[in-house]
Amino acid sequence: MSTFLGMPVTAPSGVGNLRGDRTFPEAAHDALADGQLRRNLRHATTTIRGKSGRVIAELPDWQELRTAGSAIKASVLARLPELLEQLEERVVAAGGVVHWAADANEANAIVTDLVRATGSERVIKVKSMATQEIGLNEALEAAGIQPVETDLAELIVQLGEDKPSHILVPAIHRNRSEIREIFLRAMPGVDPGLTDDPPVLAAAARKYLRETFLSTRVAVSGANFAIAETGTLAVVESEGNGRMCLTLPDTLITVMGLEKVVPTWQDLEVFLQLLPRASTGERMNPYTTMWTGVTPGDGPQSFHLVLLDNGRSAVLADRAGRAALHCIRCSACLNVCPVYERTGGHAYGSVYPGPIGAVLSPQLTGVEDNASLPYASSLCGACFDACPVKIDIPSMLVHLRDKAPHSRMERAVMRAAAYTMNHPRLYARAQRAAKLARIAGRRGRGLPPPLSSWTTARDLPEPPEQTFRDWWARR
């Protein structure tokens, strides 16, 4: 199997978790009606925002770190082929095997074949957005292989036959009573007298997972970063489950998006300061696990790295949209987004929810397959202010809205507006006529049919008493 950068093919349909069954407005309508969901989201995002804000305020050079992180990511994308080839060379020299996967189908086939070759019928997994993106769990289950998520929130989602709704906290939409019911229903060997006390729930998960860690010989992980100069992979996490998965099994298979590579250890230093503060509100990650190939007698004795494209080359080909690949999956943009806080992640239909999902998912799949997501925003700019690598999500949303399919009526209206604005006299007449909108529509703030469909969900800006043209003419 082979692929190469610059091959702008989008992620295939029918596999993975990048496309929803419904548009964002349809899914959001149902989410907004769920009062418990909104309470869960509000409590969680408010808590994370507060913690993050406090530890960020401790750093006098936070803005300089953001600038450095953005610059490093831009440099990586500018020389991505070179860095990936260097990474491959170093991984192979350290005893690992590198596989290149053009899309989700190739990646799933590679991992499934590798697991089958070990004779194992079960794998333990570290939390990984890339494996969720490609639908690896579904592919393994179809092949008769049981995947077991070891991150507590991912385990809750898996046992509940649910889908993640947050990049950092996949079960953010569940409260502890709901988690207790899921454990009682689906966790093997759980105590029937289980309560919803958080330490008790955590202890039940720990007991179940510890037995699984000690009896499973194959692990699948993602990677937060890969260091090209040494071939080192890094995973950061808060529970210790990642450390167990990355050290106990005989075989370790890592699935990593192409964009996760960084040139040097010094570059990694920047991101290890940015990521924990922006994501969990911690000064450093409790567990940072790094490994380089295979070390005889220590850790996994077989290591495979799967480098995943799955539409990333298509994103890279768009000069105005490629900065979405800067994302370090911190979820800061989700935690400040007023839209996400009210709808949750499932409304986005993709494993990547929130503002970053609204720009990344449409580019990975092709905008026509996720045409409603660029509109899942008020363009307030809070996501840009929070992003630790300065991704200008609002500008990117506008760019993708321009690329999204538009109805014939909408195109006709926009052409008429452009023609009017390009002819001064006609534009002046339109300004005078606009004053009639105060009495033409709903509460004086709408438009008459057929334009009323535009103002059913938004107020028409009220025309000023005096236009700039009138003011200018009188002087």
TrEMBL record:
4Fe-4S ferredoxin-type domain boundaries: 324-391
Coiled coil: none
Domain of life (superkingdom): Bacteria
Biological processes, Gene Ontology terms: lactate metabolic process
Keyword terms, alphabetized: 4Fe-4S, Electron transport, Iron, Iron-sulfur, Metal-binding, Repeat, Transport
Domain Lactate utilization protein B C-terminal, chain residue ranges per copy: 402-475
SUPFAM superfamilies reported in the protein's UniProt record: 4Fe-4S ferredoxins, NagB/RpiA/CoA transferase-like
Domain LUD: 84-294
InterPro entries documented for this protein: 4Fe4S_Fe-S-bd, 4Fe4S_Fe_S_CS, FTHF_cligase-like_sf, Helical_ferredxn, LUD_dom, LutB/LldF, LutB_C, NagB/RpiA_transferase-like
Pfam families reported for this sequence: Fer4_8, LUD_dom, LutB_C
Region spans: Disordered: 442-465
GO MF terms, alphabetically ordered: 4 iron, 4 sulfur cluster binding; metal ion binding
Name of this chain's protein: L-lactate dehydrogenase complex protein LldF
Originating species: Actinoplanes regularis
